């Protein structure tokens, strides 16, 4: 009898287990099926992506056939291609655009560069070049752009008629590049302001000297105009009137002082003839 009861109990346990399994399948089956399907789909997408990438990197469809440049004035396309290593036949998908931009930007005339891929087989390169605004003496002669950045050592082939900025040395620049660029920007602002008041080539600016006491302009005829610090526009207007008066009288100045801080409206003129000197003329 005891044996029979044990056998019945095993049947009951088996039945209960079966029912429990059926209940688990009913409650968790849909979710489990979705997880299996999602895993399979993910694997398919990953595999497909790998195969697609392999095809894209090997397909002749995406081989570079043409590179176009825009914005070039002084830099040559061949020079930029040589710097970057970009050549016909390279795969567009495999190009490192950021690396191409960095290497092309190493060209001294290039200020900014942007490389774009145009699928299936071309690349465009948009370049912004430095615009030279002055020459600076920093040991050697350097070209300085409109932002006050010395960007290139002057070479024999650089035929440019630009004002010279002096008064800073290479050690000053290396010690504090930001401060030096700011000083150059100030000098360029004065040069532009002077050009607006004296537009003729005869009166062009030859040099901007950054002296301890302030800016000094050296004009094409050798005249020194000592501006000092501040109030640049008003001083340039006074300089223009003084030079007009000197021309009307047939005189030429060696030095024109406009840096009198105690009496800002006063101008002192030292004529180019040592025997003649006028000072304290209010303008």
Structure, explained:
The model is unreliable at 275-283 (pLDDT under 50). α5 (177-197) crosses α6. The chain contains six helices and 13 strands. The longest helix has 57 residues, at 2-58. The chain has two domains: 61-129, Ubiquitin-like (UB roll) (Roll), CATH 3.10.20; 144-282, Rossmann fold. β9 (214-219) and β10 (224-228) form a beta hairpin. 20% of the residues are buried. The chain has 283 residues and is α/β, with parallel strands linked by helices. It is elongated, with a radius of gyration of 39 Å. It has helices spanning 2-58, 77-84, 97-104, 170-175, 177-197, 232-248, and strands at residues 66-70, 110-118, 122-129, 132-138, 140-145, 150-153, 164-166, 205-211, 214-219, 224-228, 253-257, 266-271, 277-282.
Short note summarizing the structure:
The chain is α/β, with parallel strands linked by helices. The chain is built from six helices and 13 strands.
Count of alpha and pi helical runs: 6
Low-confidence stretches: 275-283
Question: In the residues, how many domains can be counted?
Answer: 2
Q: Largest sheet, order of strands side by side? A: 6-5-4-7-8-9-10-11-12-13
Region (Disordered): 1-22
GO biological process, one term: cell septum assembly
Keywords: Cell cycle, Cell division, Cell inner membrane, Cell membrane, Membrane, Transmembrane, Transmembrane helix
Function: Essential cell division protein.
């Amino acid at each position: 009898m005891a044996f029979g009861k044990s056998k019945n109990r095993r049947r009951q346990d088996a039945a209960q287990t079966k029912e429990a399994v059926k209940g688990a399948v009913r409650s968790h089956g849909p979710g489990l099926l979705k997880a299996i399907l999602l895993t399979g789909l993910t694997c398919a997408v990953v595999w497909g992506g790998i195969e697609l990438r392999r095809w894209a990197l090997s397909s002749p469809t995406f081989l570079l056939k043409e590179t176009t440049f825009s914005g070039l004035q002084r830099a040559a396309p061949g020079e930029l291609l040589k710097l970057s290593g970009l050549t016909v036949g390279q795969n567009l998908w495999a190009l490192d655009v950021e690396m191409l931009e960095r290497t092309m930007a190493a060209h001294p005339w290039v200020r900014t560069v942007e490389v774009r891929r145009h699928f299936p087989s071309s690349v465009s390169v948009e370049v912004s070049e430095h615009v030279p605004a002055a020459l600076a003496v920093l040991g050697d002669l350097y070209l300085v752009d409109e932002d006050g950045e010395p960007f290139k050592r002057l070479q024999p082939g650089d035929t440019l008629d630009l004002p010279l900025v002096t008064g800073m040395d290479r050690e000053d620049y290396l010690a504090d590049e930001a401060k030096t660029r700011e000083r150059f920007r100030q000098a360029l602002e004065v040069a532009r302001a002077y050009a607006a008041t004296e537009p003729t080539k005869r009166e062009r600016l030859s040099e901007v000297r950054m002296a301890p006491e302030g800016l000094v302009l050296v004009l094409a005829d050798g005249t020194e105009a000592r501006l000092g610090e501040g109030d640049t526009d008003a001083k340039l207007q006074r300089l223009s009137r003084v030079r007009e008066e000197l021309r009307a009288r047939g005189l030429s100045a060696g030095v024109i002082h406009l840096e009198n801080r105690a009496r800002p409206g006063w101008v002192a003129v030292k004529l180019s003839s040592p025997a003649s000197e006028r000072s304290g003329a209010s303008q």
